[in-house]
Records
---
Amino acid sequence: MILIKLGGSIITNKEKPLSPRKKTISNLSKSLKKISEPIIIVHGGGSYGHYWSVKYDMHTKGGKYDPRGVAIVKNSMIELNKIILDSLLQNKLNPYCLPPTDFMSGNKPIIKKIKEIEKIAKAELIPVTYGDALWYGQNKTFILSGDKIMTHLAKILKPRLCIFALNEDGLYSDLKSKKLIYELHDEIPSISENKMDVTGGMTRKVEEATKISKMGINVFFVNGNKPERIVKAVKNRKFEGTLFRSK
Ligand code: IP8
């Protein structure tokens, strides 16, 4: 089984509020169609969820947020999720919409529910979930990042490979020359940040990837604009991106 995170920066234009990159999403769907193994998709918030989270001053640490903000963030994620589902359907894939409230209780994963997701994926359906604003009791809400969801799912489901599709070729050892790091073991590379990201952007992604690789699972950062690279990686032909090789 393969876990794939479609980053917000690849499925939306992060510079422009509420702007899906429909052509890119469709190209990604077409490539995913070429994968014969069960897959689970997680997607980020991009210029939907993050845009509204910033507007309403909501952050991952959680708190008593403006209910209007919570409602709008959740609604915007459903909108973005629908765009992804529509694209998968149009490309003859069978997505199974799975809001994170289906398998999270506050900030805790529900193990039994997550185990069920594997069965859905093995039944030729593609579970599709996403980062979201989640209630966690006592009037508090937090923003659950899709990156964090990847770690929760990886820990319980032990996929063969975790893929993060980004708007970059991978991680760079030097941001100026954009020299790509092909393989990482323990070292943490230097990272550039995007201000529209309430869940910690690339730093968070690298943190989660490191946690997952320590579980004995390979993690691959790849350019989502070149979706054929995802297919090649899944088929073990070539890793054109950054591979966090597990121990
Ligand atoms: O883009 C965050 O998910 P991420 C989703 O995967 C929201 O960090 C609601 C901002």
---
Amino acid sequence: MFEYQYEENCLTGKTILITGAGDGIGKQAALTYSQLGATVILLGRTVNKLEQVYDEIIAQGGPEPAIVPLDLKGATKQHYIDMGQTIVEQFGQLDGALLNASMLGELTPFSQIHEQIFDEVMQVNVKAQFLLAQGILPALKLAPKASLVFTSSGVGNKGRAFWGAYSMSKFATESMMQIIADEYEASNLRCNAINPGATRTSMRASAYPAEDKETLATPLDIMPLYVYLMSDDSADINGEVLKAQ
Ligand code: NDP
């Protein structure tokens, strides 16, 4: 497990956007960032899940979050531009963004990959991340130290049989991260990616339905790396893919 000891208020005063904040790793990251003092912007497609996270944050005494209901499958460039502008109007700047939402599609032999599922996976995991990143860059550039974090996977730089479009999309994610990191080197913005490793969520359960979930790390277990990359302690880290476990 990635080890990082952090102070109780290490994210105080920061505004952090989390995509896929209604479930799994994104939900836990939202709760943890808020607990450490950040104001979180919860982006996801299922409003009642986002509302539950909102309620949990208020119940734990965190700063009031914002909710952005958005389906990455259908969202257009204009949605992301508007979102970036609204963030600047409401919060003045964006200190961090965790681009966490993605879809698995189907695990299937290469010869059987459906064109429609390929397109959906590329839309949600690649094109939406690209447009979203473009949309929030102006807000990130206004923060003194900003952190943009993509989410990769064990199949994000080494292809594996049957992981099809998902693996290809994670390669593209790592490339996007490296391009941004290189272009913004020596600026206020750093850009990195996390490989969470096997984690107990519904995505993992659909990839490995027969495995014993009790053997897996929970989203809470992997939070040290998620906190590290949002805290100022990682200000000098740029262009890396770090493993949460
Ligand atoms: P989950 O499926 O548990 O959560 C994914 C989240 O993304 C959900 O909140 C989901 O929303 C949201 N989401 C999916 N599609 C869209 C969409 N079209 N528009 C908006 N939101 C969407 O996955 P994990 O928490 O397991 O995964 C988080 C990240 O970690 C992913 O990028 C995944 O690839 C990566 N990862 C996970 C591993 C694991 O073992 N769990 C291992 C390696 C990488 P909703 O709740 O509405 O469905």
